[in-house]
Amino acid sequence: MAATFDNSVFINCAFDKEFSPLLQAIAFCVVDLGFYPRLAPETADHSTARLDRIAALICGSRFGIHDLSKCKAGVPGEYCRMNMPFELGMDFGARRYGNGAMKTKAILVLEHTIYDTKKSLSDIAGWDVLAHDGNYDMAVRQVRNWMVQAAGASPIGPARIIANYASFQQWYYERELELGSSEEDIRSYPTIELIAAMGEWVVLGRPS
Q1: 61 CB-near residues (< 8 Å, 6+ apart)
Q2: Which domains are seen in the chain, by residue range?
Q3: pLDDT tens across 87-101, in order?
């Protein structure tokens, strides 16, 4: 699948080990619905400033999914994570002040617990911020429902997407073992490589 403005979905979230199951499930939902997830780590061109790469992805994506669930400190002394709300602001600014296709951009904001975001980001009062409770099944449901409404995605059921995800994981795991990877290797592969395999799985007809 080739990425275009109309089929690209910019995913803004934490890229740590703890969040990776949610990120991978969200990305799979996007791929399974026929769209193209765009993430900041997808480019290896480190000669370009990270913020410039992010800006290019935002301007090249009609849709944006912004997960703010990691913006709250979890333990005393931990700093809040501000990258995600900053990138949300960039996406909103592209829609608000951009011209042409930028005016068609659509944004989904996710959080861990309902109303958490409005306690620290009151400027988005009135937005429908959706919660997933840290559960990837719920994240898939929220993303699926939004993409059907905002992007005109095929209205296949969330249960089918979740079942497809299980089939993909089995296929990917077996393929990587056959290619000489160990279980530890597979667990250590970057999410962006896994997302590329998701697209390949779809192209191959979703093998079980």
Answers
A1: 5, 8, 9, 10, 38, 105
A2: 8-155 (3.40.50.10140)
A3: 999 999 999 999 999
